[in-house]
Design goal:
It is built from six helices and two strands. With 160 residues, it is α+β, with helices and mostly antiparallel strands. Helix 5 packs across helix 6. The mean pLDDT is 92.
């Protein structure tokens, strides 16, 4: 993370990192509910709170309001997804989110203008920014970067 690049915003890298973090926390905490609390308020804070409160589960642990709401939101979402029919929810007609097909090009930076570079490649600035949210500025810094681009014209992102 710096002024030009924030890889926390790269969906693939962030997902891989989150999976590793959840695995690490599950090795420390006995339940997924406590893991989720640890994700929200920090695993060390959960362990410390469990120790000094003599708590053995999330449900008998006193935590801050934010973490309590976070866990209840997850529980509510699971209930709705599992028993949607009880709430007149029909998930059968949902259209799944379509992830645009991408291709990757290797870029050697620095590139002073993403807009000019994209235009020269037949793309728009928005095509690059939507598919590469980790690029924080209008330029690409020094280094070797994998830049996602729409595979076809029909896969171009809708820019809001």
């Amino acid at each position: 993370v710096d002024e030009q690049i924030d890889e926390r915003l790269d969906p693939e890298k962030a997902t891989r990192a989150a999976i590793e973090y959840f695995k690490y926390m599950k090795s420390m905490l006995p339940t997924w509910t406590l893991v989720a609390a640890g994700y929200n308020m920090g695993e060390d804070n959960v362990v410390t709170a469990m120790q000094w409160q003599h708590a053995t589960s999330f449900w008998n642990l006193y935590v801050n309001d934010e973490t309590m709401r976070y866990i209840f939101r997850i529980a509510a979402l699971k209930e709705l997804m599992t028993h949607g029919d009880k709430y007149s929810l029909d998930f059968g007609n949902l259209k799944p989110y379509h992830t645009p097909a991408e291709k990757y090009v290797t870029v050697i930076g620095p590139i002073s203008s993403i807009s000019d570079w994209a235009y020269g490649m037949g793309y728009l600035y928005g095509d690059v920014k939507v598919l590469n949210p980790w690029l924080c500025n209008r330029s690409i810094p020094s280094g070797r970067w994998q830049i996602a681009l729409p595979l076809t014209e029909s896969e171009r992102p809708v820019i809001r």
